[in-house]
Amino acid sequence: MTDAERLALIKDVLAGIAPEAADAEIPGDADLREVLDLDSMDFMNFVIGLHERTGVDIPEADYPLLVALDDAIAYLAAKGA
Amino acid sequence: MRDFTMPALGADMEAGLLAEWLVQPGDEVKSGDIVCVVETQKGAIEVEIFDDGVIEELVVHPGEEVPVGATLARLDGKAVGAEGAAPTPAVQKAPPPAAAEAGAPTPRTAPAPAKPAPAAAARVAVSPAARRRAAELGIDPETLEGTGIDSSVTLADVEAAARAPMAQRPSVAAEAPDQNVPRKHFDPAAMRQAIAAAMQRSKREIPHYYLGQTIDFAAATDWLAATNADKPPPERLLPAVLLLKATALALAEVPALNGHYVDGAFQPGDGIHVGWVIALRGGGLVAPAILDAAGLALPDLMAGLRDLVQRARTGGLRASELGSGTVTVTSLGERGADSVIGVIYPPQVALVGFGRIATRPWVVDGEVTARPLVGATLAADHRVCDGHLGGLLLAAIDRFLQQPEKL
Questions:
Q1: Residue B390 class from Cβ within 10 Å (0-12 exposed, 13-18 middle, 19+ buried)?
Q2: By the CB < 8 Å criterion, does A25 face chain B?
Q3: Which residue of B has its CA nearest to A47?
Q4: What distance in Å separates the CA atoms of residue B195 and residue B21, rounded to the nearest whole number?
Q5: Phi, psi values for residue B284, rounded to 5°
Q6: Which of B236, B305, B308 to mutate to test the interface with A (most CBs of A within 10 A)?
Q7: Which site among A10, A44, A46, A76 would you substitute to test the B interface, given the most B Cβ atoms closer than 10 Å to its Cβ?
Q8: B334 to A16: CB separation less than 8 angstroms, yes or no
């Protein structure tokens, strides 16, 4: 996957949780939980969505590495997705 | 011949708009079947029948608004008790307990004014993502009721439409395509009215008392980390599920806080059905019940909670989940405030609140140390009990959270 594909995948997963994410311009370094008002259940669904779409396991200890879009892209890239 | 009536989906509901029939005259139904969809201030609710028999006649047609208790359909059969508000387990497990008649408010006698069915908008805005997804699913997005900005149709609306029973039952849709009112999420203004009505009644009628207790959440945090470490994401547990289970178990020890206050007397709940407060995106909240929460294992409770949140946000809640709560729990989540002083949801007699779990100084064995703490609060009805009993409930919740492996 390229970074552009990773970004598209991440935004697609987010849009399934927070519909406004589909069309929103989200800064790459913005905290997704704040920008999209995600609660713990939303964030869990975000992780589940990324896991199901990429196969990456994403242990709980790695959740802090998924704070912003740029982080999440780098994380998926590092995990080979 | 018996009647299937408009159920009361919570103390604040006076009337509902029949949006869609999922059965037709001649259809055989059995207890637990979802037979229609009702639009309420809380959105589209799937209504089950608690009766076995054959549908004789559909009395109310889609688009008609009728008061609680009005006959929706007549059926012929063997059993009795077509109570829409009777609880069934949210996670299919035990057989449904007896009907929660204590929770059903007295139907208003004055019929609600009939409202015309919502007219289709002339031009519907559809977000690009929604249009793409709709094309994949073979749905015409312009027929959907939008919940986005300026009533635009969003991706979630399309997903919700794809999940709606109408889409799963093409025969019904094909035979009566024009009779069904398109299903919508909820109208924020109507939702606000529903919340206002319930909370005004609560503040007017219920002499609340409030208690708070800070609970050391370290044991629970450690246990969750260890339990989740070797599980794939879909099987992991959230702290909320421990708070929910600990509260349900504590209520079993202090049953005077679990039930309804009706006609000047406390009626104990017929089970511990925990209304779980779910904030809806765009404002408003609902508190559908997790039935028999104390008897569910943590993974089942977690699955039930996820399912409930998903359906609350997409308009797929069931009647049995909305009228049957015997207590309410609100958890503010990781980005919430430290604690919440709740307003009881009548006719219930208690609301348990949990603030954000935050690491703060705490004294353990005489030493100040950093611990994850959670502020637990109780709002309870003084007509039913006093603070001493409420304190016992919070103490029991604390005790259960110190032994998470036993939850």
A1: buried
A2: no
A3: B233
A4: 27
A5: 90, 165
A6: B236
A7: A44
A8: no
B140 touches A at CB < 8 Å: no
- DSSP assigned state of B164: S
Model pLDDT for residues B86-134, shown as the tens digit of each residue: 444 344 333 333 433 334 443 333 334 343 333 333 345 655 556 556 6
CA distance B131 to chain A (A): 11
- Whether residue B333 lies within 8 A of chain A, CB to CB, comes out as yes
Half-sphere exposure of B215 (CA within 13 A, CB side): 32
Question: Would you call A51 an interface residue with chain B, using a CB distance cutoff of 8 Å?
Answer: yes
CA dist B67 → A79, B189, B307 (Å):
57, 20, 29
Model-wide pTM > 0.90: no
- Alpha-carbon gap, residue B38 to B402, rounded angstroms: 43
Helix (H) or strand (E) holding B73: strand B71-76
At B189-222, the pLDDT tens digits run 888 888 898 899 999 999 999 999 999 999 999 9
CA distance A39 to chain B (A): 6
- Which of A41, A47, A61 is closest, CB to CB, to B309? A41
DSSP string of B195-260, one letter each residue: HHHHHHHHHHH--EEEEEEEEE-HHHHHHHHHHHHTS-GGGPPPHHHHHHHHHHHHHHHSGGGSEE
Q: How far is CA B349 from CA A71, B234, B258, in A?
A: 46, 35, 7
B46 burial (CB, 10 Å; 0-12 / 13-18 / 19+) is buried
Query: Quick check: B87 and B104 in contact, CB under 8 A?
Result: no
Residue B113: CB partners within 8 Å, gap ≥ 6? B65
Point out the residues of chain B with pLDDT beneath 50: 79-123, 165-181
Structure tokens at B224: 């969750």
* Residue A37 in contact with partner chain B when CB distance is under 8 A: yes
- Provide the CA A73 distance to its chain's centre, in angstroms: 8
- Look up B382 and say whether it is catalytic: yes
What is the rounded radius of gyration, in angstroms, for the C-alpha atoms of chain A? 11
